[in-house]
Predict the structure.
Amino acid sequence: MLLVDSNVILDVVCDDPTWARWSREQMRARSLVHPLAINGIVYAEVSIAFNSMDNLDKAMDALGLRVLEIPRPALFLAGKAFLQYRRQGGIKQSILADFMVGAHAAVAGVPVLTRDGQRYRSYFPTVEVISPDRAS
């Protein structure tokens, strides 16, 4: 299993002029090795690109993305990572989506495909992060 971050999916569905090709190629290549998945947080973030839930669900199916529930241990870990972020001077007042995705990946022991690997690497060092600066 591999969790796909919302920025990668939005690149593909919105045909981002800078990132769509990289994101599409990474999803295609990684799907040959791992089943691709998202969680409810990513689902909500990606929903901004769709006018209906039915269209969103069809797009997720077409991309081969399965929606997973976030386990409670991951929710707990996300809170702890956010606390660390705040103690290190982070200014956001509410928990960031990346903490929920990163904690989910850490607890499930699966990699994350994202364009923004720094936060994942900083707060979830056990998670394999696949990003433009480290894609193989």
Q: What stands out?
A: The radius of gyration is 14 Å. The mean pLDDT is 96. Strands lie at 2-4, 36-39, 65-68, 112-113, 129-130.
